[in-house]
Amino acid sequence: MGKMPGVPASGTPRVPLQIVKVVAVIALFLATTAISSAATVGTPNTPSQVSTEAGEHRKGNYVPPTLHMPSQVSPFLFGTGLELTSTTDPFITNDTVRALMQQAHMTIIRMPTRIGANTSPQIPIETEMEAARKIRDMGAVPLVNLRGPADPNVLQDDLQMVNGLNEIFGHKPVYYELGNESDLGGFDKVAYTDKWNIVIPELKNAALNGKFIGPVNFQYNDDYLRYFLQNANPRPDAVSWHEYSCDTSGIYTTPPDPASTCIAKLDRWNVHFNDARVAMHDVLGGTTEIPIIISEYNYDPHVPAFNNDSQFINEWTSKAIETLAKNNIFAAMQHSVLSLTPLINNNQLTIQGTVLKSEYEKLIKRGGGFSFEDGETDGWQGDKAQVSVQNSTTIARDGIHSLQVDLTNPSAKPSISVSGSAIANLRQFPHLTAQVYGPAGTTAITAQLFVQDSLGLVLYSKSVTLTAQSWNLLSFTVPPTLGQTSKVGIKFSSTDQTASTVYVDAVSWI
To answer: Which residues are in the Mannanase galactose-binding domain (predicted)?
Structure first.
C-alpha cells in the first residue's frame, strides 16, 4: 500500500514530497510509544523502501541455482493493491476502473485496513466492506492487510474486519497479513512475533477460511524471517515481504538510479527467494516450504521517474514477472492500481497495465489447469463409491490448497475426473501433467493420467507407483489422433484394500 518513508503502520498514504518532512515528524510523535527509534524522514538515517543487500543471508556476488520456467505458473502472480484513502475511492465508485482491472487479469487484490488508531486517513468500516464486496463481485481473491503492532487496539480492529469479511466471502479463502512494514516502523523481529502470537490465534479462530501471512517486511530480511518462522505460533500459512529495485528520483540515492540499475537489481530477487527457502529448510526441517507472497512490488517506491518510458516499463515489468514465475512465487501484487506506477490512469490501462495483461495471456492462457486455490473441487469427482474428493489445506504442491482424494478401497481401481468447458482447449495444449502426493504407510498405490474423447475412447499414461509422503509427477502427451476431449482424470490402483488418502495438485496442460 502507499508508503511514506519512515512512517509505520499499515494503511499509510503517500503525500506530496514537499510536505513529507513536516508530516512525518508530526506522525512520529503521534505514533504509538512502542516506536521509539524511528528517524526523521529525508535524512540519511531513514531507511529507503528500496531493497538492499542488508537483509540477505548471503550478500554480494552470490548466485542462486539456475532457474527454469515451470509448467504451471500461479495466476496469483497477477495481483495489485488498492489505496482506499476515502469513501469515494475510484475502485468503489468507478465501474471503468474495476472493468480495466479485470481486463488486466488481476486475480488477487490487496486491500488496506484503515480503521482504528494510528492510521491516517481513516475510512469507515462500511467503506472497507464495500471494497471487499467489489473484489468478490469481480471474482478476485482478497488479500487483506490488517492492522499490526502499531495499533493499540489491533485485536479489536482486526476482528471487526474478519467478522465482516466472513459475511461477504463465507468459506471462500481470504488471505490476511498482520501489519504492513512493521520493521520499517520500529518493531523488531521479537516485538512483531510476540504480537503475532497474541493476535493470530484469535483471528484464526474467528475466520471461516482465513490464511494468515507475515512478517510483511519492507524488504527481504533473512534474520527477521528465520526468527519469525522459528517462533510464530501458529505457523504462518505463507510469508510475505516487499520488493522495490531502485530510487529513480534521487530521494535517497545521489545521483538517482538509472534505468539500467532498476533492471539489473531484479537479479537480487532470485537471491532473496532462494535464501527464504533455505531459511525454511533450516528452521522448519527437511525440504519443508511454505508459499511466498510479494505483497508489494514495483521499480521505485518513492517518486518513479520512468513511468512514461515504454521501453523501460516493458523490459522491467516483463523481467519482474519472469523472475517471480521462475522462482515459483505463489502471489505478487503490483503497487498499485492508481498511484506511484499505476495500473490504470485516466480510465485507461497504463503501459505497465498493458504489459501485465500481455504477460498473463502469455503465461497463464497458454493452456489450462487446476490449482484448487479457490477452495473448491472445481468439478472434479469420483467415479465410484470407493473414492471421494474435497478441497484441502493439509498439504499443497503449489500454494496452499490441493484436492484431497479419499480411497476407501484402492484395489477397486477407482478414478477421479473432470469434464466440461474447463478442459475444452486441451487438444491445443496436449502436454498434460499433475502432481500426486503419496499416502503414508506401506500400501503401494499406482496412479496414471487418462483422457477420454467424445466418442468414448480412453487413453492412459504410464502408471507411476506413488512414493510415500512425497509429490509424484504424472505426465502424458495426448496424441493428435484423439478426438475432442470430454474428460480428464487420474486412475488409482493397488493390490491392497487398505483405505488411503492421496492429494492432487498442479494439474496443467501446455
So the answer is: 371-505
Residue 6 in domain? no
Residues 397 and 453 in one domain: yes
Q: Are residues 337 and 377 in the same domain?
A: no
Answer yes or no: are the C-beta atoms of 501 and 361 closer than 8 Å: no
Same domain membership, residue 380 and residue 360: no
- 111 and 197 share one domain: yes
Stretch (H or E) spanning 189 = helix 189-206
Range of the domain at 336: 17-366
At 168, the pLDDT band (50, 70, 90 cuts) reads very high
Q: How many CB atoms lie within 10 A of CB 408?
A: 17
Write down the pTM of the prediction.
Answer: 0.77
Measured CA to CA, the distance from residue 351 to residue 308 in angstroms comes to: 7
pLDDT score for 22: 30
Residue range 175-190: mean pLDDT, rounded:
97
Q: Which of 344, 366, 388 is the last residue of a domain?
A: 366
- At 202, the amino acid letter reads E
Inside any domain, residue 160: yes
Number of domains in the chain: 2
pLDDT tens figures, 295-304 = 999 999 999 9
- pLDDT the model gives residue 27: 35
Cα(325)–Cα(327) distance, integer angstroms:
5
Residue 71 has pLDDT above 80, yes or no: no
pLDDT of residue 360: 92
Of 163, 103, 142, the closest CA to residue 375 belongs to 142
DSSP string, 303-358: --S-TT-HHHHHHHHHHHHHHHHHTT-SEEEES-SSSSS-SEETTEE-HHHHHHHH
Q: How long a stretch of residues is the chain? A: 510
The arithmetic mean of pLDDT across residues 51-63, rounded, is: 77
Q: E strands of 188-343, at which residues?
A: 210-217, 238-244, 292-298, 331-334
Pairing assessment for the beta strands 387-392 and 402-407 based on DSSP bridges: antiparallel
- Fill in the amino acid letter for 330: F
Same domain flag for 360 and 376: no
Together in a domain, 329 and 377:
no
CA 405 to the chain's CA centroid: 25
Give the SS3 label for residue 392: strand
171 and 34 in one domain?
Answer: yes
DSSP state of 153: T
